[in-house]
Amino acid sequence: MLKPNYHWILKQADETKTHALADALHISSLTARLLVLRGIDRPEKAKIFLHPEKVQFCDPMEMLGMREAAARIVRAVRDGEAIRVFGDYDADGVTSTALMIRALGKMGAKVSSYIPNRFTDGYGPNVRAVERAGNDQVKLIVTVDSGIAALEAASKAKELGIDYIVTDHHEPPAILPDAFAILNPKQPGCDYPFKGLSGAGVALKLVQAVCSGPADDNWIALAAIGTIADLVPMRAENRLIVSRGLQIIGGGSLAGIDALKIKAGISGAVDSDMIGFQLAPRLNAAGRLADADTALRLLLSDDGEEAALLASRLEELNRQRKALADQIMLEADKEASDYCRRGDKALVIAGKGWHQGVIGIVASRVVEKYYRPTVILSIDQQSGTAKGSGRSIDGFNLYLGLKKSAGNLTQFGGHQMAAGLSLPADRIDAFREDFNRAAEESLDDQAFIPRLAVDGECTPDQITVKQIEEMERLAPFGTDNPRPAFRMNAVRLSKIGAVGREKAHLKVMFQGRDQELDGIGFGLGGRLEQISPIDCPSVIGNCSINEWNGFRKPQFLIEDLRIDGPQIFDWRSDRKIREKISGLPPESATLLAFHPESAEELGIAGGITLFEPGMSVRQPDLVLLDLPDQEDQLSELAGNSPLVHRIYAVFYHRHEHYFTSFPSRKHFVWYYALIRQEHSFMLDAMARKIARHKGWSEQTIHFMTRVFFELGFVKIDKGFLTENSAPVKAPLTASLTYRKEKKQLEMEDLFCYSPLSSLKTWFEKRINDRDKATEPEGTMNGL
User: Fold this and answer.
1) The pTM is what?
2) Bridge pairing between strands 516-521 and 505-511
């Protein structure tokens, strides 16, 4: 048995709707099921979803405040008023800022920008920045991806006579800023049909409203990056923005985006994963380590050489960001492990001088590894304060958890899954206790097993290039439209191994009825030693097309796997038994021998359990070092050990009977006829003579002699054999030597030389017999 890393949740779809949709659109049931699970259960809706390129943008004028905002910007451009765009330092904020500046610049506006510094200014618009704008004779401020909660900045702008337009997408607070206009589809009274836009998406709507003629493709490319980076729902208008944006980016767009693609090693077609995991982190790196100016300048550059230099700077910042995060994770991991061992339900980990720009990344990594609500704090010794970032798990509202611990905090904010906070350094221990108490009140033991949602089940034969291409029509994938995940149940493996640097990745070949399917599990190489070649694992993963050297093959990307039932590992001819054994966790492994001398002959010192009748093994890993004297001993052990999940078969034996010729009945008949003919002879001399004449081994002749002696057919005295003239008739099986040798031969045949599949069948039968015997009366197994 191999346990999965996740708790698998198979989504339930309406099968009637699935079949109806498949028939109406002439698509596979797998694809139809995906649509139904996403709430796309009618043909007309499905056609729109599968063809986002045919969808039209919503009318921007439907957004509350748009007419006023657009008219004010047009007037500012016409009158030559200075406009300043207030942005944010993450990828959504930087792309929003670049989009707005490019559009206003195209209109001929006098436009400048301000993006706060994470470390000196904090998040969002602030009073000092508004005052600087006033000093610079700015008449209009437009916020992007921020401002909905910045009440003081809006009030200061009004005080200074600066018109203030907010464009944002975050949840509006109870009290809104006193602004000239607010554009946020989530604000009360806004009838805009789609509420899930990113900051860049809202900025795009404003640009569409103020700019006559068709939208610039590069504006859509910028909006697509912001939309993907900010993890907003990949539905409705966001799908249109992203699908068009990806086409533009893939074909070549702004000099800065193209330069960033080169640094990321991206060429050709681009998908949402490439943006989310390769381009966006590089844009974010500037704001995490310094300020976002480098990222903004890159997206505003139209010069290839300048863009290449700026992209190189971002690449270096991204490397530094990774190194910092790796180092902090190394330190935080030790504490996290200690807290988990003592039973903490939530983790609060603090370090002196940890870089504030990457502690959110570290919090996410800790959650991924330990699956507990986590807060990472950076302590400033000079000020005696700590600032931190938190990340949560399903079932625990991080914001409410912080609220219950608020007596220790200076300030905090965020939502269910992510938050920021600050507190005095001397309150960290008290905060840890309160935060853990909040987690204990909300979470039970099942909550700490991460869940993995599965869209459906499939077989290796169903995963074809054609099927994957059809499912790709659901792209772009992202939040609320995840890449489809499928489960394959108990699938046979025709190949298994590890590939990549340090053998980090698991490579398998799934055996279907009509075709084989490549499978790879990135980062799962360590599981190779936990999988026997005859195991039939159940796996969860995504489907992709592997293109190499002009060939296109389907591929299954394994995310998690499990193996049900007992596992048998073949160590029977392995010359590195001691190394293999040392690789097993001592707390979970039993090394069992039937004979005390076996451990010494194998070179294993200590830690050996000797078999005793009626014993039970209570650990999951059982190493069978040698052969039992009787098969029944092993049957009894298997039947008494329900906690054993993995059996490692060594079955060392000093003498190999299997390859010694076991005499047939004809051998015995011929030899006995010779004895009857000769009546008596010196045994050793006759054995040598027979061996030369018949080609038998002397060992075989002496064995038959012992059998005849036990049956009373001959007498032996001082090496001299004499025929018994009046023997009692008896079968060969009446001889203990005959039965023991034959039984030993059969045991060797089964346990030492039979295929591993036969060995597994033997153990499964004993385990199944045990399970049936322990079923309560009236149990109907399998129903």
Assistant:
1) 0.83
2) antiparallel
